[in-house]
Specification:
Strand content: 5-15%
Radius of gyration: 34 Å
Number of helices: 13
Largest sheet: 6 strands, mixed
Distance between the termini: 89 Å
Length: 357
């Protein structure tokens, strides 16, 4: 008995629906662990999409001179405060390990240093550390390839490599788009390196201390790759009068030292000689040498120490009045006053000007 036409039509529709269902059905349901992994991946991508790199800069380590920087468009109060932190850090790079991180509220400041140049970046707090240091590593490789060390060491003008901003902007755009990085960079090596040698965490107390960063012990530097530190802040360039005062102070110290040894010889030959003259000569030698030290290095209470040292020179020469003529006393006191003046004039270097870059 023949089937009704309506039955054939229903059979055709049923087969078509089965075909469409087979085309759209992904197959058997995934394992719960696979579904959980996909959810975690989706959450990570959404979180990464909300995080971003805000700015980056290239700074010379020894004096904090900015060599290049990206143009900043973010003008919020938090970002403005973080820029101040970046400037403070740039002055202390020589005292810090070669890989560091500072957490400042909703933002992180990361930087690495190599071959006298530091690469710094500002990002949101939820930006992955692995991507942040991969970004800095890429900037470092490109900068070293493009510019030689002689150019960076002899640079005088701030932002003299501003053309490097083009590469910073392109790289920042790539790292702010997480989907474009999945096939272009390998994070495994950086993840392993960060686990073996994590970045040094800078605290806000270290950043805000009056005398700069606290001196870190050898145990704290272990594993950071830091070779040496520069405990003294850099002073202004030495002038010709400063060189003259330094040489004259050394000369006065040498004269006092020679007279001190002669006084010891006289004391051994004649017991009636006063031993206090020997002490006065050697104190004068120590005062002259300490003036040379204060002229070369920046220390706490430097001007006060210089004034007290000059006072000690005057007292020693007053006590040695019977052993020196007026011209000798005038020479020693004048050199001490001139050296104290040069110490006062040679101040620590000021901060680099802000060019709003």
């Amino acid at each position: 008995m023949p089937r009704p036409r309506g039955g054939r039509a229903c059979e055709t529709v049923s087969r078509a629906s089965q075909s469409s269902c087979l085309a759209t059905d992904p197959g058997p349901p995934d394992h719960p662990a696979v579904r959980a992994a996909r959810e975690r991946l989706r959450f990570s991508l959404n979180l990464l999409a909300m995080s971003m790199i805000l700015s980056a800069s290239v700074v010379r380590v020894r004096d904090g001179l900015p060599l290049s920087a990206s143009t900043d468009y973010e003008q919020s109060m938090g970002v403005q405060q973080c820029r101040k932190y970046v400037k403070t850090l740039s002055k202390k790079l020589a005292q810090l390990p070669d890989r560091c991180m500072l957490k400042a509220g909703q933002y992180n400041i990361n930087f690495i240093s190599s071959l006298g140049v530091s690469y710094m970046m500002l990002c949101t707090e939820n930006y992955p550390s692995v991507l942040a240091f991969c970004f800095l590593d890429e900037l470092q490789k490109e900068f070293i390839t493009t510019y030689n060390m002689m150019r960076t060491n002899t640079a005088i003008r701030p932002y003299c490599f501003i053309e490097f901003d083009n590469f910073i902007q392109r790289t920042k755009q790539r790292y702010n788009n997480p989907r474009s990085l999945s096939t272009k960079i390998n994070l495994a090596d950086m993840q392993t390196e960060i686990k073996l040698r994590p970045p040094y965490q800078i605290s806000m107390s270290e950043l805000g201390s009056t005398n700069g960063f606290a001196q870190l012990s050898a145990a704290e530097f272990k594993g950071t790759g830091k070779i040496s530190t520069a405990p003294h802040q850099r002073l202004e360039a030495i002038t010709l009068p400063g060189i003259v005062s330094f040489i004259l102070s050394l000369l006065c110290g040498a004269l006092n030292l020679i007279r001190g040894f002669h006084a010891i010889e006289s004391l051994l030959q004649n017991e009636d000689e006063d031993f206090s003259y020997v002490i006065a000569f050697f104190l004068g030698t120590a005062a002259c040498l300490y003036q040379c030290y204060l002229f070369l290095y920046c220390t706490g209470w430097r001007n006060v120490k210089s004034f007290l040292t000059f006072g000690l020179i005057c007292l020693c020469n007053m006590y040695l009045y019977e052993l020196r003529n007026l011209w000798q006393l005038f020479f020693h006191v004048t050199v001490g006053a001139f050296s104290a003046l040069q110490i006062r004039l040679r101040q620590p270097q000021g901060k680099s000007p802000d060019y709003n870059v």
